[in-house]
Amino acid sequence: xxxxxxxxxxxxxxxxxxxxxxxxxxxxxxxxxxxxxxxxxxxxxxxxxxxxxxxxxxxxxxxxxxxxxxxxxxxxxxxxxxxxxxxxxxxxxxxxxxxxxxxxxxxxxxxxxxxxxxxxxxxxxxxxxxxxxxxxxxxxxxxxxxxxxxxxxxxxxxxxxxxxxxxxxxxxxxxxxxxxxxxxxxxxxxxxxxxxxxxxxxxxxxxxxxxxxxxxxxxxxxxxxxxxxxxxxxxxxxxxxxxxxxxxxxxxxxxxxxxxxxxxxxxxxxxxxxxxxxxxxxxxxxxxxxxxxxxxxxxxxxxxxxxxxxxxxxxxxxxxxxxxxxxxxxxxxx
Length: 334
Prior knowledge:
Blueprint: H1 2-24, E1 27-32, H2 40-56, E2 61-66, H3 77-83, E3 88-92, H4 115-123, H5 131-139, E4 141-148, E5 152-156, E6 171-174, H6 177-185, E7 189-192, H7 198-203, E8 209-213, H8 214-219, E9 228-235, E10 238-244, H9 245-249, H10 253-287, E11 291-294, H11 297-306, H12 308-317, H13 321-330
Parallel strand pairs: 1-2, 1-3, 6-7, 9-11
Antiparallel strand pairs: 3-10, 4-10, 5-8, 5-9
């Protein structure tokens, strides 16, 4: 009996030691996002990414997830990542563009034809032309992946935006300085408004139009207070998945590989979800009585040329801008 008890004790001790060693091998990653899970085409691929990493690492990676700005809002995400206050974020490109001006490329007017165009540009190595290096060297942020949102389109209250002249004599709600400057160049009168104020501004006639993604319009019920939606790809936000440099360098090579592969899959999944969302959202707007229009190529070219001064100003202030713009044109189909 004493011998059996001794064996049992040794086995139990060994099992406890094994569990302690395993616990030490678990790499916890704190992930923060200002977005709520209701932003499905961004959140679902991100959630699947984390599940894949945990599963493929056989429990050696554990994510601690904070969403809906529980820790930091969109503007605070990159600084928090740089400081190491969080380990991983999925930044929306507009928010960190104040400190990483190259990210404003995605806000440039009519820069991309559609999500297929921007996806070709991203896969073609845009971030390798200087963006990833800048993020890592100046902000301690290692870029893992990037995938577009649905494009910003043109919402208008009473008349559609089909030609360059249609921007004139209208009050436009803009999202920031680049939008505002673009709308001025196009002949409009911009006023900065958050998406939360768009509904009342349209309803009361304070604004005539705004450039926003379809996700915003549906989420804010804008179809109740405006009549026209014009597909023109005014700009496209990009979700940039990044990890703190010190955290990344502290991970074993095999886990880095697992994360890298899952990030590529995340990008591809978001592309497919966004593509389907555009189809579904267009049909939903039409079913709700909104007239959906498409700008003709010649008219779109006029708009792009008229707003080119905004792009030129940006290009003069950003390193590697020539390389970024050359790649964009190279990947354009027409």
